[in-house]
Amino acid sequence: MSSSNQYNRLAIVFHWLLALLIILSMIIGKLVLERIPNSDPEKLNILQGHSIFGIIIGLLMIARYLNIKLRGKPDPIDSSGKLMRQTALWAHRIIYLLVFITVATGLAMAVQADFPAVFSGVATLPESFNHLTARTVHNLSTNLLILVLLAHISAALYHQLIMRDKILHRLRWKRMD
């Protein structure tokens, strides 16, 4: 553990960059890709971008995890009791797990649907992805991730606005020290 009240700057960059990429990826997946039939040629370009986002998210999550393990993180907020600290610990673990499951099942879908051949123009997309086991798990993990992230954001806002313990200051660029 670090004795600082803030995350290190690299951890802050990882946090906000991953937040942006994960939200964009979920919007593309849920609100765009799910509505476009696989027969539509436009889907291929969007699917390529979504796949690239997924790979980048996976790599950044590994880098973020290593950064926190090597450089530590701030001590828990004083105003939170044992139950809140344990809940926060498990919530973060669940977020990591769900992101990794979502990325892994996205990669598994790419293998099952032969994305390299599809993206190179040698093959076409299957009529649907619904028959792929990885698709079912990818969809479930994405839906669970959305719920957990909404709870995470709600908890951060509760701390910041109700408890007024300045928890979000730990994730800002400007140093408090």
Describe the structure using short key phrases.
mainly alpha; Fumarate Reductase Cytochrome B subunit; 68% helix; elongated
Structure description:
The protein is mainly α. The protein has one domain (about 10-170): Fumarate Reductase Cytochrome B subunit (Up-down Bundle), CATH 1.20.950. Helix content is about 70%, strand content about 0%. The chain is built from 5 helices and no strands. The protein has helices at about 10-30, 40-70, 80-110, 115-120, 135-165. Helix 1 (about 10-30) packs antiparallel against helix 2 and helix 2 crosses helix 3 (about 80-110). The longest helix has about 30 residues, at about 80-110. The chain starts with 8 loop residues before the first helix and ends in a 14-residue tail after the last helix.
Which value, in Å, is the CA radius of gyration? 19 Å
Report the span from N to C terminus.
Answer: 17 Å
What is the percentage of strand-forming residues?
under 5%
Give me the CATH architecture, please: Up-down Bundle
Which CATH class? Mainly Alpha
Query: Would you tell me the structural class of the helices and strands?
Result: mainly alpha
Mean of the pLDDT scores? 92
Which stretches are low in confidence, meaning pLDDT under 50 for 5 or more residues running? none
Percent in helix = 55-70%
Query: What is the count of distinct domains?
Result: 1
* Largest sheet, strands/sense/barrel: none
Global outline = elongated
What is the tally of helical segments?
A: 5
N-to-C SSE series?
Answer: HHHHH
The count of DSSP E runs of length 2 or more, i.e. the number of strands, is 0
| CATH topology descriptor | Fumarate Reductase Cytochrome B subunit
Oligomer: single chain
